[in-house]
Inverse folding.
């Protein structure tokens, strides 16, 4: 482990800068929470409707910005009212989380989603054991509501999610002041935290020329063992299925700040296609964050539906598409961002006509290191990808 | 076919007129020797041996039957004389030191009434002879029917204790009372008078020294008993509370006879329950606490939705005296005696009636006159038709008819079209009176009553009335309590044999928002009262415990129950709506406390001020929402509730209703002195204990 406390003055200056930015950011978040509370108390004293506007996070309120190649959130917002039988409790929960966040900001601490759930969990006064939150799901939903309502990101609310995702490669970063050399991460790799904003992670030194993002850690393990990143001078990441926000933000920063192209190696199934879609243009539920998460330049390297023939795979790798898969595929093929894309229409159409899906691991049937030594290098060389 | 009876015309003359010749085999008895042993059986002797037929099967029931017969007689006498009944029942424990598990004990039952009294020469007949009475031969609605009751009780007492019946009766308030003690001779069916004098001591002052309560000057106040009769019978019995007890009988009697004021001094000791005896009383009607402060006083405000009924009246118990107050000053309407309806008699009765008619008319009455005089609803034209139909003419003498013609006449009766019997012989309790009775006897929140039009079974008019009491302090988990009455007399035994129970079971109570297991009585805080008024109630047995299951009767019962049920359904729907509304209030008011604290933590707004502002806003919103529509989006008919309030068959005691609308916070602020609850119109406050049942509603809202 290459961890060294930064001591040089240049780093110190940078740290101060970050600190200042964080302070300003917190101040602004705090201001928004107070504005929200003021709205409630003012309306109450004025006898007006008491509500909080919460932008809607639904498909209907998601817009496809073709020019920028990302999903954006529309203007629609719902009003969460206190004096509505179905919303009164959520209204209360929103207020409770507002209080928790203010406390966190003032204490300069952060909490996990689950921690937030416990922080606000208590029996409502004057009731026979009714809890403020019935389950963590309720609490998580309220926090997302607050993010969009306050126009602040989760990390700005001092809340983080469970960390997920791994990175290794020719890059050195600084994470919360600790220098981390991603070339020397052993077999486990660097666990990507849930917050990868510049105030937490700074890129120090990078030789890598591109990023290879794979779907899951089993495939990532294969590449890491073969020292793929060393041979091909790249960064190797995985997101355990759909990559969490921290991973996506990191990829976006690698792409944006270090100008590294992002290649994705995902399964040939609707789920894999959707992961690519999320990495590339953002997700519906987090459309408000697309601007800092989406990577319109990301490329889909494989597995491709044509690989069954191209790579001469056996019948054994076929996994039949079930009804759910087919339904999902039809939905994806109709997404506006795929609809006008001939390559993708062809790709999904091919998978449908094959009638089966394939996992990245299916390439192992050729040879243990086929995927690292032949498949990916060849595709990269031939620039055979979808974008 | 009844054979000709002796001139006495007594029912129980058992003397065989034609003794069959005994077969002459082994010479044991001859017709002659047997004839020496064949003799009249006195009715009283017969019943002395078959006392279970009259309700003296066991010591406990004997005590009850004694009280019941005496009270029935007292109420009948008062009503016939147009006197508002005051009846006092005293049970004295004559063996207070018996072991606790004694199977029976000796009691003295005394029943005092303020009726018209009995003239001296009739005393022996009234109390000392079985089957002597004014009620048997007529078709008129009354409690007693056969004239067996009180003399049988006296006889039972005599048999078990050897003590004569003690009677004080004062027919005139200006003269002293007769004091008579008599013992019945079971062989002769005649009473033997052992003491016969006059005394100014009426009501007997001895009764005023039984326990502290009876020393109260108001107890047996002589002004309340200017005339009247007091009967004391000593007997072996068993005093116990519970189902089928004297207590229950008097409680129910008070409900069905709200015009009567009944005072009860129970025995000082209650016998321990046997294991195999009736289950303990399911606390049917909670007694008022004995605290004198809780006794009803007149300065309470009106409690019910209508002023003519007073819900503050309630059974009270103080110092060992239980008082069932008078709920109304209106006596039941006087009933008319009617002649039998042709469709209601049987052939044997017809023959007997003809014979009586012959005897009464020395010159031999005509058939036409017989039909006209002895039946109701036979017009002159109809009488002529009947004469013609059996091949006679209107001058034909009754005595000249041959048996075939009589039988033909009987058939004609069945087939002819006749108007139903007159119904002025019936004295229903009446809707208002039933409500008054239920109101003072059952602590519920909702009362409804309905009275059907008279109908006819087997040519006998009858009328069904029902009432229900719901909610309030009634137990919520129990099966409905059905209280049954025939001619205002409670029926305490054999419920499963009774038509009324079948009618309740067959009524679809689920339609009225009550739960009802298949084929059973409904379950819930409800008391169902069924009353059958008739000139002749068809009991299943002599002990008058259950009403026979005639289709006509059951149908009327069901219709009456449905009418009450609909009113209850309306009320329950309204109550549910109000519960939902208060749940809605709850939703807002539950959360605004949390919200105020949260907002205070963020921007420092004063928690209390914010809470108050939100609370008043919440109330305002709820009020607006109330006015618009209910949760299901349907507007509840505004006039539905008004209908209930304007229905004279419905009474609401809102203070006992479980759905008050104001928040708990205010209820807690109310002073404990108000905890009596009954005295405050309920629209004002909500007591926290009445809030149960709310929590399940909560889920519905989220």
């Amino acid at each position: 482990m290459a961890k060294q406390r930064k001591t040089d003055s240049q780093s110190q200056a940078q740290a101060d800068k970050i600190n200042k930015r964080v302070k300003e950011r917190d101040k602004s978040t705090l201001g928004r929470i107070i504005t929200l509370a003021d709205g409630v108390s003012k309306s109450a004293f004025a006898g007006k409707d008491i509500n909080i506007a919460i932008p809607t996070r639904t498909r209907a309120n998601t817009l496809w910005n073709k020019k920028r190649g990302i999903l954006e959130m529309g203007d629609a917002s719902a009003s969460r009212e206190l004096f509505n039988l179905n919303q009164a409790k959520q209204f209360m929960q929103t207020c409770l989380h507002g209080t928790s966040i203010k406390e966190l900001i003032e204490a300069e601490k952060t909490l996990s989603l689950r921690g937030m759930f416990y922080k606000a969990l208590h029996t409502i006064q004057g009731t026979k054991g009714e809890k403020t939150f019935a389950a963590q799901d309720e609490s998580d939903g309220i926090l997302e509501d607050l993010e969009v309502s306050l126009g602040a990101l989760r990390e700005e609310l001092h809340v983080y999610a469970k960390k997920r995702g791994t990175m290794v490669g020719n890059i050195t970063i600084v994470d919360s002041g600790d220098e981390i050399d991603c070339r020397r991460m052993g077999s486990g790799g660097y666990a990507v935290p849930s917050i990868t904003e510049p105030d937490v992670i700074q890129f120090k030194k990078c030789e890598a020329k591109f990023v290879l993002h794979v779907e899951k850690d089993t495939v990532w393990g294969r590449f890491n063992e073969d020292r793929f990143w060393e041979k091909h001078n790249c960064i190797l990441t995985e997101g355990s299925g759909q990559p969490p926000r921290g991973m996506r933000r990191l990829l976006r920063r690698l792409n944006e700040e270090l100008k590294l192209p992002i290649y994705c190696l995902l399964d040939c199934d609707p789920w894999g296609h959707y992961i690519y879609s999320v990495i590339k243009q953002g997700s519906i539920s987090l459309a408000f964050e697309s601007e800092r998460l989406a990577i319109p330049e990301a490329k889909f390297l494989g597995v491709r539906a044509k690989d069954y023939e191209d790579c001469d795979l056996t019948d054994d790798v076929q996994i039949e598409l079930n009804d759910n898969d087919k339904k999902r595929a039809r939905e994806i093929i109709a997404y506006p961002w795929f609809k006008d894309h001939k390559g993708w229409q062809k790709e999904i159409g091919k998978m449908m006509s094959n009638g089966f899906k394939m996992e990245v691991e299916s390439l192992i049937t050729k040879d243990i290191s086929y995927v690292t030594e032949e498949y990916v290098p060849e595709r990269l060389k031939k620039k055979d990808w979808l974008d | 076919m009844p054979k000709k009876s002796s001139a006495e015309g007594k029912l129980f003359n058992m003397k065989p007129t034609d003794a069959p010749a005994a077969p002459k085999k082994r010479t044991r008895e001859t017709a002659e020797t047997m004839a020496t042993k064949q003799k009249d059986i006195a009715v009283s002797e017969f019943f002395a041996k078959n006392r279970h037929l009259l309700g003296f099967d066991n010591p406990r029931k004997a005590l009850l039957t004694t009280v019941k017969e005496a009270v029935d007689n007292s109420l009948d006498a008062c009503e016939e004389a147009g006197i508002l009944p005051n009846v006092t029942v005293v049970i004295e424990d004559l063996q207070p030191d018996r072991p606790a598990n004694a199977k029976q004990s000796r009691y003295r039952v005394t029943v005092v009434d303020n009726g018209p009294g009995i003239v001296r020469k009739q005393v022996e007949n009234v109390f000392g002879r079985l089957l002597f009475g004014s009620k048997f031969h007529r078709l008129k609605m009354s409690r007693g029917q056969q004239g067996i009751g009180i003399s049988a009780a006296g006889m039972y007492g005599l048999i078990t204790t050897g003590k004569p019946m003690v009677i004080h009766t004062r027919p005139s308030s200006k003269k002293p009372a007769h004091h008579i003690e008599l013992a019945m001779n079971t062989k002769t069916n005649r009473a033997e008078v052992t003491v016969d004098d006059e005394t100014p001591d009426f009501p007997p002052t001895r009764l005023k020294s039984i326990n502290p309560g009876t020393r109260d000057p108001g107890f047996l106040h002589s002004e309340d008993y200017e005339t009247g009769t007091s009967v004391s019978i000593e007997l072996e019995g068993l005093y116990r509370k519970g189902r089928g007890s004297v207590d229950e009988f008097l409680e129910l009697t008070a409900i069905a006879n709200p015009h009567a004021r009944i005072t009860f001094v129970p025995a000082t000791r209650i016998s321990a329950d046997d294991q195999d005896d009736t289950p303990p009383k399911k606390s049917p009607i909670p007694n008022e606490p004995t605290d004198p402060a809780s006794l009803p006083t007149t300065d309470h405000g009106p409690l019910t939705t209508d002023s003519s009924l007073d819900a503050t009246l309630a059974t009270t118990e103080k110092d060992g005296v239980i008082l069932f107050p008078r709920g109304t000053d209106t006596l039941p309407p006087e009933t008319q005696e009617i002649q039998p309806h042709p469709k209601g008699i049987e052939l044997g009765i017809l023959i007997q009636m003809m014979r009586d008619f012959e005897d009464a008319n020395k010159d031999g009455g005509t058939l036409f006159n017989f039909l006209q005089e002895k039946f109701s609803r036979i017009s002159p034209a109809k009488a002529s038709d009947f004469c013609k139909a059996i091949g006679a003419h209107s001058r034909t003498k009754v005595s000249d008819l041959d048996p075939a013609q009589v039988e033909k006449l009987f058939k004609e009766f069945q087939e002819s079209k006749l108007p139903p019997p007159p119904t002025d012989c019936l004295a229903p309790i009446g809707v208002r009176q039933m409500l008054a009775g239920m109101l003072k006897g059952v602590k519920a929140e909702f009362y409804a009553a309905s009275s059907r039009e008279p109908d006819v079974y087997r040519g006998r008019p009858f009328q069904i009335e029902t009432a229900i009491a719901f909610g309030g302090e009634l137990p919520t988990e129990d099966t409905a309590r059905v209280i049954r009455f025939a001619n205002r007399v409670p029926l305490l035994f054999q419920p499963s044999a009774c038509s009324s129970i079948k009618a309740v079971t067959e009524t679809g109570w689920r339609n009225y928002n009550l739960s009802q297991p298949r084929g059973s009585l409904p379950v819930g805080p409800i008391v169902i009262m069924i009353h059958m008024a008739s000139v002749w109630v068809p009991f299943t047995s002599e002990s008058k415990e259950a009403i026979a299951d005639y289709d006509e009767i059951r149908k009327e019962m069901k219709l009456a129950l449905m009418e009450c049920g609909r009113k209850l359904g309306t009320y329950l729907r309204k109550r549910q709506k109000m519960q939902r509304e208060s749940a809605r209030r709850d939703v807002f008011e539950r959360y605004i406390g949390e919200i105020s604290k949260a907002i205070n933590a963020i921007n420092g707004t004063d928690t209390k001020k914010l809470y108050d502002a939100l609370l008043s806003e919440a109330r305002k919103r709820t009020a607006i929402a109330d006015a618009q529509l209910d949760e299901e989006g349907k507007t509840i008919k505004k006039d539905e509730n008004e209908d209930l309030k304007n229905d004279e068959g419905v009474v609401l005691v809102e203070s006992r209703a479980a759905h008050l609308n104001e928040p708990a916070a205010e209820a807690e602020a109310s002073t404990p002195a108000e905890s009596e609850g009954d005295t405050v119109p309920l629209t004002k406050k909500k007591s926290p204990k009445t809030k149960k049942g709310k929590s399940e509603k909560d889920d519905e809202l989220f």
Summary: The radius of gyration of chain A is 23 Å. The mean pLDDT of chain A is 88. Chain A is about 45% helix and 15% strand. The longest strand of chain A covers residues 201-206.
